[in-house]
Amino acid sequence: MTDKHRILIVDDSPDTLELFEIQLKPRYAVDTATDLASARKLLNRHRFHVAIIDLVLPGENGLDLIQEIKQQYPFMAVIAISGQASIETSVNAMKLGADEFIVKPIRNLDLINLQVERLLETQWLIEENRRLSELVQKDIETDLIIGNSPSIQQILQKVQKIAKLDTLVLITGETGVGKSVFAELIHRNSQRKHKKFVTVNCGSLTETLLESLLFGHKRGAFTDAIRDKLGYFQEANGGTLFLDEITETSLSFQVKLLKVLETGSFRMVGSDADFSTDVRILAATNKDIAECVANGSFREDLYYRLNVITLHISPLRERKDDIKILTNAFVREFCVKYKKAELVISPGMMSFILNYPWKGNVRELRNAIEHAVILAEHSVIHPQDLPENITEHAEHNGKAPDSEIMPWNLSKLDHERVYLEKLIESTRGNLSEAAKLSGIPRENIYRKCERFKLDYKQFRDKQSKARD
């Protein structure tokens, strides 16, 4: 029994407790409580991995216990359950840290085991990532990196080993994964951190301009060279030079770069003399550099010279744990930037974000969240607040933005506005008729209109214009 994960169930209904025990006891150690006082005693006595908490208890509020658990036991997973809770209550439960929400009566009993199993797997990953993070952060500064996936932690461990050495590093990965961020991280944790970190995007420059920027030029070397100009190899002397999109350079330029890497010397454009430099070179590409060598667009000798240490940054779609962390970080960032009140990511929105392919990776996600924060009209961000090209992608692929199945009480947050608008339009703005048709009290419909900023009177105006 001691080797089993321990589950705490808090519910005042004997039938519900029995149901959960039948489902969970074969695999887990289960403790039950019918009130908050008993639950607190059990929490003091045992280490629980998951707590399943009813939000509506006689004279008590399960939200209070959720808040206490997340403050005192932050790595304990929480499933909130209720048959009476309002949408606002369920959203509050998620804001306080509930990981899942189940609506009673529970019709799919397998859902209980599935959710507990998934939460335990996530919990193990979080604890393992935290352990790795603590090992890495003892020795290196990692504030530039937002992410806690195993692949990111492995890269950070590698950075810890190589940062203080002057070895060449080749960083690979798709566009937008953050290659330049990792290059800067290496510089910040190197012996050269007090010197300059200079970035050059080789893909955006012509060969002539790239040579001039990197090597410098002498006055009269070309038409616009009206004075001598130092290049980045001199400007970054003692520091780090990051050459992004290195595979976009010409073969003739690659010969000159190889000379610098091998001898530490270069020649300014239009000069007869060689100059020396002491820079650390970091390079990056979004292409398969071995394939570039094979097709003759990249020199093999330069490839082997650069490829001393390789860091491969996985695409965001393979790091779903990081998507959640990045999304929440970007929401906070842009709420501050645009002076907006705290916004909550709706479950449908998060479901969509986790399943979208993000071909532009972190850069695309950041831009999408900025767009959503700007357009959000209420306290919850919905999929329709995302850029049109993203939501259209879901439609073209036969998926609604919030197509992942989830508890109805949470899923309808994303459908509610659309339903409400259709309801009011069908009743021509008559709230009393809308209440009869939907079964929702008239005052609730009025409050929902205020929350979603729906002007029900405009539907009356539309009807009047249609008659005219």
Main sheet strand line-up: 2-1-3-6-7
- Biggest sheet details: 5 strands, parallel
Helix content: 40-55%
Distance between the termini: 76 Å
Quick one: how many beta strands?
16
Rough shape? elongated
Percent of residues in beta strands = 5-15%
The name of the CATH superfamily of the largest domain reads P-loop containing nucleotide triphosphate hydrolases
Give the low-confidence spans: 131-138, 398-413, 464-468
Count of helical segments? Answer: 20
Taking all Cα atoms into account, the compactness measure Rg is 29 Å
Average pLDDT works out at 82
Element layout with pairings:
Elements (H helix, E strand, L loop, with lengths): L5 E5 L3 H11 L4 E5 L2 H10 L4 E5 L1 E2 L2 E2 H11 L4 E6 L4 H9 L4 E4 L6 H28 L12 H13 L6 E4 L6 H10 L8 E5 L5 H9 L16 H4 L4 E5 L6 H13 L1 E3 L6 E3 L3 E6 L3 H6 L5 H7 L2 E4 L7 H18 L6 E2 L1 H9 L5 H15 L4 E2 L6 H9 L11 H19 L4 H8 L3 H10 L5 H11 L1
Parallel strand pairs: 1-2, 1-3, 3-6, 6-7, 8-13, 8-14, 9-10, 10-13, 15-16
Antiparallel strand pairs: 4-5, 11-12
Helix pairs in contact: 5-6, 13-15
